[in-house]
Specification:
alpha/beta, Rossmann fold, binds zinc ion, 2 domains, four-stranded antiparallel beta sheet, six-stranded parallel beta sheet, Isoleucyl-tRNA Synthetase, Domain 1
C-alpha cells in the first residue's frame, strides 16, 4: 500500500466557482478515487485562499467585514463537494487558526535559515493579480489582465524572501521529467532562471495599509503577503508542524499537486523554494492543466459567454458534468467548448452510448438469466491505470468508450435478442458474457462517474435493468 497526497490549488474567494476550478477538482478527484481503488491510502486536500488586499477590498465594497465575507464564499466552494461528488478529505481555509499558526512557524524557519530580510523598496502592484508588476508587464501603466483596476504604487519597507538563492536548486528539480506534467510548461521558468535569475520577492505588507493577513511573527507592523501564507496550506492541512500525518503523507508519500497553467511560477518555483528554505521535501509531481475557452474566446462576464459549472450540473447532472470535463477537455492543452458541443457529446456518448448499452444488456439479462452474473473486476488494466497515472483523463475515458463500442458492435452482430428465442442456452451464454464485460468496464468508470458506475454494478449484482442512466436532453 502506498500513501498518496493530492491537492488542488486553493481558489481565491473573490468570486464564485468557475469552470477552471470545477475542472481541477474533478481531475484531482478522479485520481484520488482511482488510487483508493488500487488500495492506496489517500489524503486529498482542497479549500479556500482568503487573505490579501483583493478580499479586503471586495469585503469593504460589499459592506462586510472580511471574515464574514470569506465565510460566505467558502460555503459556495464547499457546496461543490456535493454538486461534483468530490471525495476530498480536507477542506482547509487559510483563515483557520491552525493554518495561521503553521504559516508563522514556516516564516520562522525561513528566517532562521537567513532567507528573510527587510528592505525599503518601491514597486507597482496590481491588486487584481495580487502581484508586483514591472513596467514591461504593464500596458500604458495598466495591467493588461485588469484594465479597469488602478495599478498601485507601493513604497514601503517590507520583508523579502531570498528567492534568488534557489535558482540552481530549482533547475535541478526541473531535470526530472516527472516533476511537472506536461514538462514543457517549465520551459519559461527554466529560461527565466538561466537568463535573468530569480528576483527576491516581497512577503509582507504594512498592517497600517492592509491588515487582512497573517501577522508576521515578531513584528506587529506587518502581515504576510497573501501568496506566502496561502501556499503553506498544502502542509498545514496535514497538521504541520506536527509530524504525524505530515511525515506519513508529505515526507514518505507520493505528493501530487494540481494547478492551472498560470500557476507554474507560484507552484513550481515560489512554493518549492519556500519548502527548500524550510528544509522540507519538495512536491514530487505537479500536474498543470490548460484553460477552457468558449467558441475561441476567453470566458468573460462582459462577453456574456460564461459557462457556469453549476449550470452544467443542473442541465446534465453531476456525473455527466464530470465526464464532459474529464474526457472532452484536453488535460494538457487549452480546450474550446460550447453548449452545443456539450449537448452533442452528452447525447452521443452518454445517452446513446453508456446509457443505451446498459439498458440493452441489462434488459436482456433480466429477461433471460435466472441469476446474477458473478464478476471480479478487482483491478484496472495496465493501459487504463497508466493513462490515469499520466493524467491522461481523456485517454483513460477513450479506453472505456472503445469497450462500449465493441459491446454495441457485438450485440448488433450476434443479435442476442433473437438468439434467446431460437437457442436459449446459446443466448444466455452470450448475455452472460455481455453482462460480465459491462461490469468490467463499469469498474473503470468509477473514478470518472462514481454514482453511475455504482448504479450499473448494482444492476449487475441484482440482475435488474436500472432506471434510465442519462435522460434525453429536452
Ligand atoms: Zn492584474
Amino acid at each position: 500500500m502506498a500513501r498518496v497526497y493530492l491537492t488542488t490549488t486553493l481558489p481565491y474567494v473573490n468570486d464564485k466557482p468557475h469552470m477552471g476550478h470545477a475542472l481541477e477538482f474533478v481531475q484531482a478527484d478522479a485520481i484520488a478515487r482511482s488510487r483508493r481503488l488500487m488500495g492506496d491510502d489517500v489524503f486529498f486536500n482542497t479549500g479556500t485562499d482568503e487573505h490579501g488586499q483583493k478580499i479586503a477590498d471586495k469585503a469593504l465594497a460589499a459592506g462586510k467585514d472580511p471574515q464574514t465575507y470569506t465565510d460566505e464564499y467558502a460555503e459556495t466552494f464547499k457546496a461543490l463537494k456535493e454538486k461534483l461528488n468530490l471525495s476530498y478529505d480536507a477542506f482547509i481555509r487559510t483563515t483557520d487558526p491552525a493554518h495561521k499558526a503553521a504559516a508563522q512557524e514556516f516564516w520562522k524557519r525561513c528566517a532562521a535559515k537567513g532567507d528573510i530580510y527587510k528592505k525599503k523598496y518601491a514597486t507597482k502592484y496590481c491588486v487584481g493579480c495580487e502581484l508586483e508588476k514591472t513596467d514591461s508587464e504593464l500596458d500604458h501603466g495598466v495591467c493588461p489582465i485588469h484594465p479597469n483596476m488602478e495599478v498601485q504604487v507601493v513604497d514601503e519597507e517590507n520583508y523579502f524572501f531570498r528567492f534568488s538563492k534557489y535558482g540552481d536548486a530549482l533547475l535541478a528539480l526541473y531535470k526530472s521529467e516527472s516533476f511537472l506534467t506536461p514538462h514543457f510548461r517549465l520551459n519559461e521558468m527554466v529560461s527565466l532562471i538561466e537568463k535573468e535569475g530569480l528576483q527576491d520577492f516581497s512577503i509582507s505588507r504594512l498592517k497600517s495599509k492592509m491588515s487582512w493577513g497573517v501577522p508576521v511573527p515578531g513584528d506587529d507592523e506587518h502581515v504576510m503577503y497573501v501568496w506566502f501564507d496561502a501556499l503553506i496550506n498544502y502542509i498545514s492541512t496535514l497538521g504541520w508542524p506536527d509530524e504525524a500525518k505530515f511525515s506519513e503523507f508529505w515526507r514518505e508519500g507520493e505528493t501530487i499537486q494540481f494547478a492551472g497553467k498560470d500557476q507554474v511560477r507560484q507552484q513550481a518555483a515560489m512554493w518549492q523554494a519556500m519548502l527548500l528554505s524550510a528544509d522540507l521535501p519538495p512536491t514530487k509531481h505537479i500536474f498543470i492543466h490548460g484553460f477552457i475557452f468558449v467558441d475561441g474566446q476567453k470566458m468573460s462576464k462582459s462577453l456574456g459567454n460564461v459557462i457556469d459549472p453549476l449550470d452544467m450540473v443542473a442541465k446534465y447532472g453531476t456525473d455527466a458534468t464530470r465526464y464532459l470535463l474529464l474526457r472532452h477537455i484536453n488535460p494538457f492543452e487549452d480546450s474550446d467548448v460550447t453548449w452545443a458541443k456539450f449537448d452533442e457529446w452528452y447525447t452521443a456518448n452518454l445517452a446513446n452510448g453508456l446509457g443505451n448499452l446498459t439498458a440493452r444488456v441489462m434488459k436482456l439479462a433480466q429477461d433471460n438469466l435466472t441469476q446474477p452474473v458473478l464478476f471480479d473486476a478487482g483491478a484496472f488494466s495496465k493501459e487504463y491505470s497508466d493513462a490515469l497515472g499520466g493524467f491522461e483523463f481523456n485517454k483513460a475515458a477513450d479506453i472505456v468508450w472503445a469497450k462500449i463500442q465493441a459491446l454495441d458492435q457485438r450485440i448488433n452482430a450476434e443479435e442476442p435478442f433473437k438468439l434467446v428465442k431460437s437457442d436459449l442456452e446459446a443466448g444466455r451464454r452470450v448475455t452472460a458474457e455481455l453482462v460480465h464485460e459491462l461490469a468490467v468496464l463499469s469498474y473503470m468508470v468509477i473514478p470518472l462517474m462514481p454514482a453511475t458506475a455504482e448504479k450499473i454494478l448494482t444492476a449487475v449484482r441484482t440482475n435488474k435493468k436500472p432506471d434510465n442512466l442519462f435522460n434525453r436532453l429536452a
